[in-house]
Specification:
Structural class: alpha/beta
CATH architecture of the largest domain: 3-Layer(aba) Sandwich
Strand content: 15-25%
Number of helices: 6
Order of helices and strands: EHEEEHHEHEEHEH
Radius of gyration: 16 Å
Distance between the termini: 12 Å
Low-confidence stretches: none
Number of strands: 8
Largest sheet: 6 strands, mixed
CATH topology of the largest domain: Rossmann fold
Helix content: 25-40%
Length: 175
């Protein structure tokens, strides 16, 4: 079976939760899976893995700079493949926006990096106003108001389609 590295960037921890679910599915199929947070300095050598996966959340309309730095410094390995990318964002809660070709953040990702992952996915994230700093809460509520999402300051809504996460993990297993 394969050795996979899932390198992730998360702000509030939901991307890590998705990574853990992917790890569970892959390990149940006999794969060895290592999770590592991008930007912590504790990243294992990516060349020691058979498959690479990068997962990143969106905050204020963009993936964090450290995600692009990670990709840039490992581009030859990622291009050699097999390698995958997934994004976590609240736009994906809307019908059709959970499709990598129709999600504005994945389209932006493709314009910003030369890497063409073997497999791509986008998952809706979680909205948990109580976790956000006051300024973040205000900004995210405004974005939700503009996009027809929940604006109740006490809202705690998980939009993630866990069956889609499981399907993505199975695609990783066979790539």
């Amino acid at each position: 079976m394969a050795r996979l590295l899932i390198a992730y960037s998360t702000v509030d921890g939901h991307t890590l939760k998705i990574c853990a679910r992917i790890q569970h599915v892959l390990q149940s199929e006999g794969h060895s899976v290592t999770l590592a947070e991008i930007g912590t300095g504790a990243m294992p050598d990516a060349s020691h893995f058979d498959k690479l996966v990068v997962g990143a959340s969106i905050r204020y309309g963009r993936h964090r700079d450290e995600v692009y730095e990670f990709i840039e410094t490992r581009l030859p390995l990622l291009q050699r493949g097999p390698a995958a990318f997934f994004s976590v964002n609240l736009v994906a809660r809307k019908p059709g926006r959970d499709d990598p070709d129709r999600n504005p953040y994945l389209r932006g990702f493709r314009r910003k990096t030369p890497w063409e992952p073997t497999v791509m996915a986008v998952f809706a994230g979680k909205l948990e106003y109580a976790k956000y700093r006051p300024a973040d809460r205000l900004m995210i509520r405004a974005i939700m108001w503009l996009t027809g999402g929940p604006t109740d300051a006490k809202a705690n809504v998980e939009f993630t389609d866990w069956a889609a996460v499981d399907d993505f993990a199975r695609r990783l297993s066979s790539m």
